[in-house]
């Protein structure tokens, strides 16, 4: 059985480019939302001629769609993920555009019948509304307030959850931008970490769970959590997800 030092070193060495979570297989699990986001967007894309994927990450989710619309574009602002997206998607004819989370979307008004986004970190609802064609749809799976709060508290201690990612607040902001709410569905989902190496890799990859995380900076908390996993079994946390769909009149 690997030691604490070996597990931590392994988790610290794994590349974190892109948004691929396949390394966690056998080391961590996360319950999936009931709506099946990848299948859902694939079905919607079959009925449109133009789609924009905002904050695509490395494009891994979009790349699972077998038949892309004739015009498919994506935006991404983080250079390592942008490089992955270009490598995956440009050979498929996808327009890959660099744009920060809060930058204006570099497309003309009414450009897309469908806009999708999985786990956007920040949202310009005014820009979403602008680039949607009349009658067009924005469909997004988002991270809700308090997601992985148990992990954050294991390293930072008890603190009050940020409510800025509340599903109802997202709906209010969308409607204020002039689009109509179609669907709002929140779910709380179980996640398990089987070893401390998986926790280290997760915190390096999902950087907002423990801002400024480094192994050296949080070595006592890592050791305490390792001992807890060794004695009690998998460390259980919960992700918060919600599906939001809006329509431009």
How would you characterize the overall build of this protein?
This protein is 32% helix and 25% strand. Strands 1-7-8-6-5-2-3-4 form an 8-stranded mixed beta sheet, sandwiched between helices. The model has no long low-confidence stretch (mean pLDDT 96). The chain is α/β, with parallel strands linked by helices and 249 residues long. The chain has 8 helices and 8 strands, in the order αβαββαββαβααβααβ. Strand 5 (112-118), helix 4 (125-131) and strand 6 form a beta-alpha-beta unit. It has one domain (4-247): 3-Layer(aba) Sandwich (Rossmann fold), CATH 3.40.50. It comes from Kutzneria chonburiensis. One of its GO terms (molecular function) is methyltransferase activity. This is Class I SAM-dependent methyltransferase. Keywords: Methyltransferase, Transferase.
Largest sheet: 8 strands, mixed
Structure annotation, total helices: 8
CATH fold assignment: Rossmann fold
General shape:
globular
β-strand number: 8
- Based on CA atoms alone, the radius of gyration comes out at 19 Å
The CATH H-level homologous superfamily: Vaccinia Virus protein VP39
Summed up, the domain count is 1
CATH class: Alpha Beta
């Amino acid at each position: 059985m690997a030691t604490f030092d070996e597990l931590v070193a392994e988790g610290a060495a794994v590349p974190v480019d892109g948004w691929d979570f396949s390394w966690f297989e056998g080391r961590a699990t996360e319950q999936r939302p009931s709506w099946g986001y990848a299948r859902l967007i694939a079905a919607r894309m079959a009925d449109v001629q133009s789609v924009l994927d905002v904050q695509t990450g490395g494009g891994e989710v979009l790349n699972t769609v077998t038949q892309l619309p004739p015009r498919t574009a994506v935006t991404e602002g983080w250079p390592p993920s942008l490089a992955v997206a270009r490598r995956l998607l440009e050979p498929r004819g996808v327009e890959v555009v660099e744009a920060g989370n809060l930058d204006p979307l570099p497309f003309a008004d009414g450009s897309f019948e469908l806009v999708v986004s999985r786990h956007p970190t920040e949202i310009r609802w005014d820009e979403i509304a602008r680039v949607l064609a009349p009658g067009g749809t924005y469909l997004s799976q988002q991270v809700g307030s308090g997601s992985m709060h148990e992990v954050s508290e294991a390293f930072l201690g008890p603190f009050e959850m940020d409510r800025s990612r509340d599903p109802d607040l997202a709906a209010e902001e969308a409607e204020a931008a002039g689009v109509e709410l179609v669907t709002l569905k929140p779910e709380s989902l179980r996640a398990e970490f089987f070893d401390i190496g998986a926790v280290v890799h997760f915190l390096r990859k999902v950087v907002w769970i423990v801002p400024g995380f480094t192994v050296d900076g949080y070595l006592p908390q890592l050791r305490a959590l390792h001992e807890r996993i060794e004695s009690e079994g998998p460390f259980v946390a919960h992700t918060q997800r919600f599906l939001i769909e809006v329509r431009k009149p």
